[in-house]
Every structure is written in structure tokens, then in C-alpha cells.
Design a protein that fits this description.
This protein is mostly helical. The chain contains two helices and no strands. The longest helix has 21 residues, at 3-23.
Length: 46
């Protein structure tokens, strides 16, 4: 993978995390979002 592609993916991931954090109004909401993301990853892996 080229360096340009790696940089683009890193920026995309950081932007996504920033938007995700902005969407959560409380620490509890953030915890639920992380839990949901973990479950989605587990479902995709199995």
C-alpha cells in the first residue's frame, strides 16, 4: 500500500472518530457506541 493511501486512511479514521465523539453527548453514550462497534466487529469476524 502506498504512503499516500496510508495517510488518506489515517485521516479518514481520525475524522470518523472525531465525528463519533461529537455525536455522543455523554460518556455513557460514548461507552454504548464503543460497545456497539465492538459487537459489529465480532459479528463480522465470525
Amino acid at each position: 500500500m502506498s504512503n499516500t493511501m496510508k495517510k488518506f486512511l489515517a485521516i479518514l479514521m481520525i475524522s470518523g472518530m472525531g465525528l463519533g465523539l461529537a455525536a455522543c453527548e455523554t460518556a455513557e453514550g460514548f461507552g454504548e457506541d464503543v460497545e456497539d462497534a465492538g459487537e459489529a466487529i465480532q459479528d463480522g469476524a465470525s
